[in-house]
User: Fold this.
Amino acid sequence: MGRVTFPETNCDLRTDKGFLEMVDEDHHVNNVLSPFTELSIGKVTGFVLDYMHLVCLGVVRRLLLVWLWGPLPLRLSARAVSQVNDSLISLQPYTPCEFARKPRSLYDN
Assistant:
């Protein structure tokens, strides 16, 4: 249906042991043990969550889609969008070169 939903939220947490035992088949390609299993770190507990993909390209992206092109009562006014765009663009010169992406317009994909 083009949507990601989580109808069941009362689930068991993933564990390092469960990963090694390949309990969840959807998280293992062709049921082959990953070469990472040879590392002495937890495959579930040893990795941080990825802010960019979880937040910036997840929740925030969906909010922006609703605020820009969603139902009329939820959309931002053209003036508000213009103000946000101007603020984002004005930050570009102050973004450190180490940052992979500089602030850009809300309409840029």
